[in-house]
Fold:
Amino acid sequence: MVSNININISSLERISGTVRDENNNPISGIWVNASSEFQQTGAMSFTDIDGTYVINDLLKSQDYVVSIIPFASLQYIPQEKTDVKSGTNQVDFILKQAFTFYGTVLDTSDSPIQKASVELYSTSQNFYVWMPTDGSGKFTFNCVPSSTDY
Structure:
């Protein structure tokens, strides 16, 4: 016989909102994540055709980070909102269009340079990334915000 077992059942909450583009059009298929460091847990959801999302089954907490998850084909700049309380509705995002910046680094003989460090920086967007070129001297930066000061 087992004794002294305590079972705690917590009520679960949700976070919801909408994701739209700069023209106020809903965006479907966007991966939205909510994670709590305090609770050491999280969950995710994709936006529906009307841009809405609901992330269910969250433990009660006030420190959720709700973020748009970047992935290779994302055409928008990732965003996050911090210190979101579970049970909050209208955690909305307006996403800005992202761009892809790519090229090839060549030496003076037009031969590709492998492992060349390529940096992309914008002061106005507070954006900085770098990467080495591949074996063909090529590089690609995804999710680049629009700016005129690169």
Notes: The longest strand covers residues 13-21. The chain has two domains: 13-95, 98-145. The domain at 13-95 is CATH 2.60.40.10 (Immunoglobulin-like). The chain has a mean pLDDT of 92.
